[in-house]
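Re: your question about Glycosyl transferase family 2

S., sorry for the slow reply, the queue was backed up all week. Below is exactly what I fed in.
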Amino acid sequence: MDTLSDTLRASGAAAGPEKSGLSVVVPAFNEADNLDPLIARLVAALERIGLPFEILLVDDCSADDTWLRLAELNRGDPRIKGLRFSRNFGKEIALAAGLRHATGAAVVLMDADLQHPPELIGTFVEEWRKGAQIVYGQRDRTGEHPGLRRWLTRRFYRLFEAVGEVKLMRDGGDFALFDRRVVDALNALPERGRFGKGLYAWVGFRRVAVPFVPDRRHAGHTRWSFWRLWMLALDAVTAFSVLPLRIWSYLGVLVSLVSLAYGAFITLRTLIEGIDVPGYASLMVAVAFFGGVQLITLGVLGEYLGRVFTEVKRRPLYIVDTSVGLDEVVEIGLARGPDRP
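Result:
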C-alpha cells in the first residue's frame, strides 16, 4: 500500500484533511505535573476539530513520574501514545523522534508546559485546509517586559538573518503545524546536530503565521538557562552559515596588508631619516593581539570540526527504551544517509 506522501505525489492534490488525521507531538522532560491538564485541554480541543487524532508524547528520560503517568493515560485513552528514550537526548532530538513516529496527514508540535494553548490548534487546521503547509504560532511580545532575555532574542534573530542561509520564522518557536509533505522532508534530513527552527525554514513550503500570547507555565520551571540558549545559538550559526570562517580569512588578509604597510613605513623612515625605532611596547602588544586572534580562529575552526566529527561518527539520533500505543517503533533512530533509507 502506498504511503500518504506517495499518494499525494501521484495525484498532485493536497491531502484531504477530512479523510486523514492529526498527530500532536509533545516532547516532555519532568512534566508529570503538567500531563493531566495538558491532555484534558488537548483532547477537548482536538475533538472539537472533528478529525481522527493521536497524541504522541516523547519522554526524554524524565527523572519524575512522567512515563508512569503517560502509561496510565494510554490505558484510559489509546489515542494517547508515547515513547521513552534510553537517556536524555534533548528537546530537538525528541521532536525529531516524534516526527518520525507521527502518522497523521498533519503534525502539530507543541510544548508540554501549556504555554502553547491547545485551543489554537483549531486555527492552525483552518489555515492548513486553506492550503498552508506550515502554520506556526508567532509570539505576541507586546506585553512582555523588555528584559535582557528579550533583547538577546532579538539580537540573535538579527544576527542569524545577517549570516544565515535561511530566514527564520520570526518569534516562531516549536508551536507549529506541518503538512505531511513537510514532515517527510524533515525526516529525510541527515544531520545529527539539529536546530529545528532553522530546519523548518530551510525546507521552505507555504507558511502562515498565527499570532498568540503565550500562557504562563502551568507547573515546574524552565530548564533553558542563558548558557543553554548560548549553546543553541552557537549551534544554529555553525549549522547554517560559514561566514564565521570567512570573517577570519578576511581578517587575515587585512592584517597582512596592514603589517606590510607598517613594515614599509618603518623601513622607509629608517632609510630616509635614520631613526631607529625600538618599538618594544608595540611589539608586545602586536604579539598579544595576534596570539588572541589565533586562539579565536582556532576556536571557530574547532566548532566546525566538532560538528564534522559528530556527523561522521553517524551514531543514532536516539535510542528508544520503551513505548506504549505505537504499532511500529523505530527503536534506533539512525540519521539518514547514502546507505541508510
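The chain has a mean pLDDT of 74. The first strand starts at residue 22 and ends at 28.

Happy to talk it through on Thursday.
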